[in-house]
């Protein structure tokens, strides 16, 4: 099995490749050196997977560029891939998420907007139904900015899409993006006077269950939740976690109920629990969680794992990957049981995505 | 004919050129509009889609910072030298 791990950092994109079933990795030099890569994706619907990168120069702004040869060459169209229509008066500040889904490539940006491409990710159109939502003036900005960072198209019904934003929370459409409704019932916003608002939550990441497309898992700004009804209601699954803060949430690519996260102590103490570099896995949809740290550093560990800096691949025995703000990247080829180091001393890791010879990670 | 000096970091978006001869004069906006027509990937690295000069891009017209001399309305004489310089910022 061959595998490629794309690692977006604050100063470039690195590609790690493995041809021995994810035992060892070769790391490329930086693509787009000095440029932040907040979003990366593999589109495996094409004969050769297309690599898409949302890059963000602190001086020269954001764009999306694509590669059909695993980064050997990159192409960016002459026209801006994403640009707000003139009547909006808005400008794209950062691309936070790129999500290929069959013939469509979705993108989420700062300011909070959803975009749709039907030409493989070269040209994106603003999804007006969400941009024009009456709630939008009340969506807030977290420390990292105000952005749509999660896009989950329904695997069997192209009219259904669920997105998450910080802040604002979860919204969903069932008519292809024409109309949107908040879906945050049960998710707490402790930082607001009314901690149970219709919207305004700071949902950090949402992931879809592999077996049940109406089940999702959410890491909130305090609180870890599950829904089994497509987002009608959410229930806490944090009871056996050592902490309910964090940014990540990823699901197994094929097995329902198996999920991973990297908990942090709290909003005020953004560091791993017990200063231990450890991942937590649940195989019963969040009812119980178990720590996984064999092969991870034993020394006191302070770095944070950001919302998109954790992923799975789609091998039968799933690979799990994460990178930290200290620039170290770890991989597990056995669903988190054991870990090995892919890279160290990189810039802050912002996102990771993995593709094996069989497909793409989540 | 005004000439635009392109910093090394942006020359790939200008066909590899460090000096661009442009037809437009009159105002910096007209020059950037022409750049947008001829080298669109370069122009959008200087301005966002609302037409605003990006925060950490500095443009000097005959040595004067455009932000102190009229912004995009800064006059550009026919023989002007327009220098694009990234500002000192980063982490």
Question: How would you describe this protein?
Answer:
The complex is a heterodimer of chains A (362) and B (91). Chain A has 362 residues and is mainly β. Chain A contains one helix and 30 strands. In chain A, a hairpin with a 7-residue loop joins strand 13 (169-173) and strand 14 (181-182). The longest helix of chain A is centred in the middle third of the chain and has 4 residues, at 128-131. The mean pLDDT of chain A is 96. Chain A has one helix at residues 128-131; strands spanning 3-9, 12-18, 26-27, 36-43, 50-57, 61-67, 94-101, 104-110, 113-117, 125-126, 147-153, 161-166, 169-173, 181-182, 203-208, 216-220, 224-227, 235-236, 245-246, 250-251, 259-261, 263-264, 279-282, 290-292, 310-312, 320-323, 329-332, 340-343, 349-356, 359-360. Chain B is globular. In chain B, the strands form two sheets. In chain B, strands 2-1-7-4-5 form a five-stranded mixed sheet, with no helix packed on it. Chain B has a two-stranded antiparallel ribbon with strand order 3-6. Chain B is 20% helix and 25% strand. Chain B is built from two helices and seven strands; from the N terminus they run E-E-E-H-H-E-E-E-E. In chain B, helix 1 (28-38) crosses helix 2. Chain B has a single domain (3-86), classed as Ubiquitin-like (UB roll) (Roll), CATH 3.10.20. The longest helix of chain B is centred in the middle third of the chain and has 11 residues, at 28-38. The interface between A and B is medium-sized, with 19 and 19 residues.
CATH topology of chain A: the name is Methylamine Dehydrogenase, Chain H
In CATH's first tier, which class of chain B applies? Alpha Beta
What is the terminal-to-terminal distance of chain B?
38 Å
Low-confidence stretches of chain A: none
State mean pLDDT of chain B (0 to 100 scale). 96
Number of helices of chain B: 2
Total helical segments of chain A? 1
Sequence of strands across the biggest β-sheet of chain B: 2-1-7-4-5
Helix content of chain B: 10-25%
Total number of distinct structural domains of chain B:
1
Biggest interface, residues from each chain: A-B, 19 and 19 residues
Classify the oligomer.
heterodimer
| Name given to the CATH homologous superfamily of chain B | Beta-grasp domain
CATH topology of chain B: Ubiquitin-like (UB roll)
Mean pLDDT of chain A: 96
CATH superfamily of chain A: YVTN repeat-like/Quinoprotein amine dehydrogenase
Give the class-level CATH name of chain A. Answer: Mainly Beta
Beta-strand share of residues of chain B = 25-35%
Number of strands of chain A: 30
């Amino acid at each position: 099995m061959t595998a490629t791990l794309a690692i977006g950092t604050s100063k470039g994109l690195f590609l790690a490749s493995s041809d021995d079933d994810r035992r060892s990795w070769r790391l490329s030099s930086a693509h787009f050196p000095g440029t932040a890569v907040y979003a990366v994706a593999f589109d495996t619907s094409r004969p050769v997977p297309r690599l898409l990168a949302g890059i963000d120069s602190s001086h020269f702004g954001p764009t999306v560029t694509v590669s059909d040869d695993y980064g050997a060459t990159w192409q960016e169209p002459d026209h801006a891939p994403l640009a707000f229509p003139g009547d909006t008066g808005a400008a794209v500040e950062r691309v936070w998420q790129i999500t290929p889904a069959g013939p469509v490539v979705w993108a989420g940006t700062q300011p909070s907007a959803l975009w749709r491409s039907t030409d493989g990710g070269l040209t994106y159109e603003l999804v007006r139904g969400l941009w024009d939502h009456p709630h939008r003036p009340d969506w807030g900005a977290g420390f990292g900015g105000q952005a749509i960072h999660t896009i989950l198209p329904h695997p069997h019904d192209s009219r259904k899409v669920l997105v998450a934003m910080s802040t604002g929370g979860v919204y969903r459409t069932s008519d292809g993006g024409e109309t949107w409704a908040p879906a945050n019932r049960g998710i707490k916003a402790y930082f607001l006077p009314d901690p149970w608002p219709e919207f305004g939550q700071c949902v950090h990441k949402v992931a879809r269950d592999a077996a049940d497309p109406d089940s999702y898992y959410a890491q909130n700004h305090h609180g870890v939740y599950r829904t089994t009804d497509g987002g009608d209601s959410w229930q806490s699954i944090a009871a056996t976690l050592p902490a309910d803060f964090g940014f990540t949430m990823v699901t197994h690519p094929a097995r329902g109920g198996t999920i991973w996260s990297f908990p942090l102590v709290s909003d005020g103490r953004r560091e791993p629990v017990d200063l231990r570099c450890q991942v937590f896995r649940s195989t019963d949809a969040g009812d119980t969680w178990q720590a996984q740290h064999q092969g991870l550093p034993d020394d006191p560990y302070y770095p944070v794992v950001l919302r998109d800096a954790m992923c799975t691949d789609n091998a039968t025995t799933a690979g799990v990957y994460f990178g930290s703000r200290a620039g170290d990247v770890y991989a597990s080829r056995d669903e988190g049981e054991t870990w090995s180091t892919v890279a160290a001393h990189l810039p802050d890791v912002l996102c990771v995505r993995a593709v094996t010879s069989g497909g793409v990670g989540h | 004919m005004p000439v635009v000096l392109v910093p090394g970091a942006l020359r790939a978006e200008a066909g590899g050129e460090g000096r661009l001869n442009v037809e437009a004069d009159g105002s910096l906006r007209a020059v950037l509009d022409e750049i947008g027509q001829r080298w669109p990937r370069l122009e959008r690295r200087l301005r966002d889609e609302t037409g605003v000069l990006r925060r950490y891009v500095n443009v000097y017209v005959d040595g004067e910072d455009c932000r102190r001399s009229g912004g995009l309305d800064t006059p550009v004489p026919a023989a002007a030298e327009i220098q694009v310089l990234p500002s000192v910022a980063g982490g």
